[in-house]
């Protein structure tokens, strides 16, 4: 099949790729006014139905008093103005304080997780760039964590992290004797480490996959030219590979950041409904604020704040990273 | 590190440090990756006593009992079928819709093009929890207004999941279609195909790796989702990701059964994924990495 | 162009908001109908060893009901982890079952949503009258002074389950009656190398049930008489500390229990790994795990001193399951008939025997099956020394907040950190501040 043709085409087109962004001339026959909108319609309708309208409703909910007394007929629930937001951002009071702490934990967790995922993924992709025996096998193997369903993967880690019958304590305590007594991984402070390990284990293959794909787009001639200049392996990586990967990395890091920050499945399966304080990620925290304490108004307000934060970060990130590129066609 | 950057013997030959660091790194990484896989496989073959007592690397005796028991402890087969239907349908729909949308963006200039792409991508930012309840209410209201049962049905879940994977899919396919030479569809147009004919006969075949990559992504997204499935399904429509929790709500934690069931539900996805990974890399190379 | 875009966006938003106010939750105020008299949907909670086991228990009874009334009952057994969420979404959307099981401690909270049919005199008459039920069970059906939100279905209480063999080996002749005795006995068992007491440290619900009883024994309550949370009184703090100290100071609960949340402590007991367990109606559960009745003894939960009774001698919460009807059911008469059927003397005997619970119906309770052996202890406890959990609208938040605080305290204890009066008070104070402002 034509598996490699487009890839080559992409490589060949790469230098002129940026031209695709600016308005270009097309044969008049393609440009029919209605057609593009028609093609977009299904996607548009579904995005509206499942994402945008519910989100607008969610934002509206954040201005309502939606406790158990009103959820049954929440169209008639009293408007509460900015009360839910005030409660959420009053960092001297327990609710706001807990939210702020959860936020910082999430930020720290996300930065560490994304950083490690990227580091491991990039290193693995670089090491697997040359052919050697077993390379295909390793490549397949490395994708397994990514391919495993989240539930199956995380529940296996839950088993491994058990205090009495888990593998982690068996190795660290019984076999290596690194700890005085078996540690707890799913409660208490260690739970942050546990969460990070699982998240990195599950997430790095995606970075690996993308970087691997990105590496294939770097023309061989660049390496050859550098080699002729006397650059060694490590210098080639530093001078050619990493800079060439920049656009790939920019997108990769953003996507990883958003996914990790909003991840609900991993902490939920790992810890259940009430996460330990040390690993109280914001997604689970908001879930708890809404579903466990039955205050959907405050939960929505927290979600909106989270959304605003992500918008600002993403916007800022895109602004920062697009500087120096060709100005986009706004 | 830079101490190794002495003039190499031949232009492309990596230094010795590269080889030993590669060996160490890949060995450690393989161990890290395989550890849970080993636990999953070996524990699924253990008798219950082996998984409730101190951890054992290998079963004290091999038993396939867990693999027999998993089907009767919970209605695993039904969950399996549900997941297949939901994830399969969501994947097909998502891919078709994404292909259309990506083609429109890649090949046409139209007002709102940029707004569309930015909006679609920005939905990746939405915290799921924010629209879980509203979405549920919308489905209920649609159900009451039109009689189409979306809530609690597989249909509602399919609809939800396909939009989860849509943004990333569209975005990837735009990149991929951009890399398919425009001359191809222009030639098809000259041959008398309409724009849709050009899409289906020329662009789609040339973009198979990208489409496969998108399909794999969509399938995995739907196969593993927990939050929406836990609220929007009932006993007859429950999917695996939620249904598997049935093993730990019992009055004993049957780790061997949990591991066996996890393995059973993972094998089809992992096998499919590994079979298609060639396409995946090729698809990402041209698509996501533009 | 920019203007039109903004205008479109504005128009869309406005129309959405209109739609939003129009679509509330389901049929909001109507009190149910009889539009679909032939079918009922029933959500059962998971009472037996597994969901499948529950279906085997309930299906024949539901068939019996269909034979009697011609009403077909669609059964869904919902795991505890999902039940409250499912009820909440059902209440929010109006799309729910006709009849459902609720944990009896949720009664007041769910009552506040207004989604459940109030059991006024007329409704009670339809099922044979309020007098058929025992008072302690009726005490856990909703806020005081309001019509109950549900009808008692199964009653349970806590008891001390002990392993006869381990007790004999340690030279213990009778089960402990006070906490001091329990600790002393625990030490004896540990001296023999055994593990003394099991606990479900990471399960907020179990935690809350225990600290509630301890608080009663200290003469304290988590709520003031007018329903305000009061978690930081000396009695409450001492109560919580006493419970956590079983692991932290007395060390008769193994640290590993701090992460138990999936009934591992029951398995431990059934496998003979721990000598004692505080649990509600565990007999059927233990039997299903291969522990026969002669292997364990059942005794009342210890008190501070003296014998179990009212007031500070309370030694259990009133545990149990209530049966509720969704207010907007489309088969109101059928739902009432179904509740009548499920609470009939005959069905009460069958179901409560299957689940090793105690019937909250007086006539059924008098049956010999519930007055012997383990059941006698449980029934006695329910009748004399069990107290209902606070019947306040914020009960479920209270369970979560305090139960989680205790979970964190257990985690501290397990990690070897000191659990002091101050640290307990700080944790409880935080929990109290998480309660909805009044």
TrEMBL record, chain A:
<dbReference type="GO" id="GO:0005886">
    <property type="term" value="C:plasma membrane"/>
</dbReference>
<protein>
    <submittedName>
        <fullName>ABC transporter permease</fullName>
    </submittedName>
</protein>
<dbReference type="InterPro" id="IPR051393">
    <property type="entry name" value="ABC_transporter_permease"/>
</dbReference>
<dbReference type="GO" id="GO:0055085">
    <property type="term" value="P:transmembrane transport"/>
</dbReference>
<keyword id="KW-0812">Transmembrane</keyword>
<feature type="transmembrane region" description="Helical">
    <location>
        <begin position="34"/>
        <end position="63"/>
    </location>
</feature>
<keyword id="KW-0813">Transport</keyword>
<feature type="transmembrane region" description="Helical">
    <location>
        <begin position="243"/>
        <end position="261"/>
    </location>
</feature>
<dbReference type="Pfam" id="PF00528">
    <property type="entry name" value="BPD_transp_1"/>
</dbReference>
<comment type="similarity">
    <text>Belongs to the binding-protein-dependent transport system permease family.</text>
</comment>
<dbReference type="InterPro" id="IPR000515">
    <property type="entry name" value="MetI-like"/>
</dbReference>
<feature type="transmembrane region" description="Helical">
    <location>
        <begin position="192"/>
        <end position="215"/>
    </location>
</feature>
<feature type="transmembrane region" description="Helical">
    <location>
        <begin position="300"/>
        <end position="320"/>
    </location>
</feature>
<keyword id="KW-0472">Membrane</keyword>
<keyword id="KW-1133">Transmembrane helix</keyword>
<dbReference type="InterPro" id="IPR035906">
    <property type="entry name" value="MetI-like_sf"/>
</dbReference>
<keyword id="KW-1003">Cell membrane</keyword>
<feature type="transmembrane region" description="Helical">
    <location>
        <begin position="103"/>
        <end position="128"/>
    </location>
</feature>
<feature type="domain" description="ABC transmembrane type-1">
    <location>
        <begin position="103"/>
        <end position="317"/>
    </location>
</feature>
<feature type="region of interest" description="Disordered">
    <location>
        <begin position="1"/>
        <end position="26"/>
    </location>
</feature>
<feature type="transmembrane region" description="Helical">
    <location>
        <begin position="140"/>
        <end position="160"/>
    </location>
</feature>
From TrEMBL, chain C:
<dbReference type="InterPro" id="IPR006059">
    <property type="entry name" value="SBP"/>
</dbReference>
<keyword id="KW-0732">Signal</keyword>
<feature type="signal peptide">
    <location>
        <begin position="1"/>
        <end position="24"/>
    </location>
</feature>
<dbReference type="InterPro" id="IPR050490">
    <property type="entry name" value="Bact_solute-bd_prot1"/>
</dbReference>
<protein>
    <submittedName>
        <fullName>Sugar ABC transporter substrate-binding protein</fullName>
    </submittedName>
</protein>
<dbReference type="Pfam" id="PF01547">
    <property type="entry name" value="SBP_bac_1"/>
</dbReference>
